[in-house]
Amino acid sequence: MSAERTTTTEFADLARALGAADGENDRLMLAVEAAVELIPNCLHAGVTINRGGHCHTLASSGELLRVINELQNELDEGPCHTPDRTEEVVVVDDLATDDRFATWGARVHAEHQLATVASILVFTARGYYGTMSIYGTGPHAFDEDDLATAQALAGHLAVAIAAGREIDGMGVALQSRTVIGQAEGILMERLGVDVDQALAYLKRVSSQTNTKLVQVASEIVRTRQLPGA
């Protein structure tokens, strides 16, 4: 991740703000606002929950995200409308031509002049799941750095929500693999290792500290610091 675009200090500030937020709605809005601020080509961002196959907008940078989600419901297709979604990251680089969500994508492009969407899974539960989505105007609007930033934001949000016990209190299981994935990305960047080596590192720290793997990963995502650093 480019230090010029998204710094450790910015993520640390966001983590503190998420931790100090009064409630879930404030946490969601902080994450959405951070996406628009920290990802250069992100014009719109939102957090969506898919409950029983229907998209509900929990937080958004503007009314347009609600319109886009309603279009997913109307057309019964879209990255946040996929039943029982398990893909952690779904990227559509050209909404006008991609055939995965052909009707919805073409309408979003034609009616709202948006061409790229990236949707990151934040949590899952029986019968529903939550995502963070970012939208840009031109095709291929988001590069690897942008996607890494979006994934890190989703990881921060997942950790903050779990820590606040707001989702846990509703019986929702935190999507552990998402948080572990964010931690692996940080380790790969900091240590210059591949994904298998990053996971081995997490397991080693978990064993040495007698701490659950997801808790080790959550702390790395929250602080963006290596254990013991």
From TrEMBL:
Gene3D superfamilies assigned to the protein according to its UniProt record, in alphabetical order: 3.30.450.40, Winged helix-like DNA-binding domain superfamily/Winged helix DNA-binding domain
SMART domains from the UniProt entry: ANTAR (SM01012)
Segments passing through the bilayer: none
Domain ANTAR: 160-221
Pfam families xref list: ANTAR, GAF_2
Keywords associated with the record: Kinase, Transcription, Transcription regulation, Transferase
Superkingdom per UniProt: Bacteria
Presence of the UniProt keyword Transcription regulation in the record: yes
Protein name as catalogued: GAF and ANTAR domain-containing protein
